[in-house]
Design goal:
Elements (H helix, E strand, L loop, with lengths): L2 E2 L28 H13 L3 E4 L6 E7 L5 H13 L5 E4 L8 H6 L2 E4 L6 H12 L3 E5 L14 H9 L3 E7 L4 E9 L4 H11 L12
Parallel strand pairs: 2-8, 3-6, 3-7, 4-5
Antiparallel strand pairs: 1-8, 7-8
Helix pairs in contact: 1-2, 4-5
């Protein structure tokens, strides 16, 4: 059975839509009070708000969906800075060998070698094991184009690293960046993946035809 960290999280309870997420002391942190106010101010300027709940844990897998445009990444970074949460994301190791590499790392980028014998999943699990704090953000669709099924790597990483999965959503209909529920994977891949996808069924993507 799927376990939820909270019963009143954003995707699971419409009444929670107006609650503002709070960052616990265990969550990876970044920024200052000024950057938090600046980021939330920009979101409000364009009519967006943050809602839901974030688990107070030091390590978590964050999945973001629907991912249909580059605006999703802008929302991710504004939400992260608005909440003062340091998120990490994956990129090809070749990109980190360019002059932009230091900038990518500064903004939370983690280089992965797709040719490694451990594979991307193994490298991410190892990163979780070595880190004291880590919030790794992945888009399960893996692309902005329409896909028939989600990639399952995020679930395998969470299961092998023994970390919870926080569902983050970009709802362009309600203009809400939502957080929750948080799910602790039990190993029932197909059942829990179906449950997770069902939770996203009411979210309006930037380009609905691609979701």
């Amino acid at each position: 059975m799927t376990q939820q960290f909270n019963s009143g999280d954003y995707l699971g309870d419409e009444q929670d839509v107006h609650s503002y997420p709070h960052r616990g002391d265990l969550v990876p942190q970044m920024g200052t009070g000024f950057t938090e106010r600046l980021a939330t101010g920009i979101l409000r300027l364009f009519g967006w708000r943050l809602a839901g709940r974030i688990p107070n844990v030091s390590k978590v897998m964050v999945i973001g969906a629907p991912h249909t445009s580059n605006w999703d990444w802008v929302l991710v970074m504004l939400a992260a800075y608005g909440l003062g949460i340091k998120i990490s994301w994956l990129g090809k190791d070749s990109a980190f060998k360019t002059p932009l590499g230091p900038m990518f790392r500064y903004f939370g980028g983690i280089a992965v070698d797709r040719r490694s014998p451990n594979g991307v999943v193994g490298q991410c699990v190892e990163r979780f094991e070595k880190a004291q704090k880590l919030a790794l953000c992945i888009t399960p669709e893996g692309t902005r184009s329409k896909v028939n099924e989600w990639k399952k790597g995020f679930y395998h990483i969470a299961t092998e690293a023994n970390v919870p999965i926080l569902l983050a959503s970009f709802d362009f209909g309600e203009k809400v960046v939502g957080f929750g529920p948080t799910i602790y994977p039990t190993g029932d891949l197909e059942g829990e993946l179906s449950h997770i996808q069902q939770l996203y069924s009411t979210v309006t993507a930037h380009k609905p035809a691609k979701f």
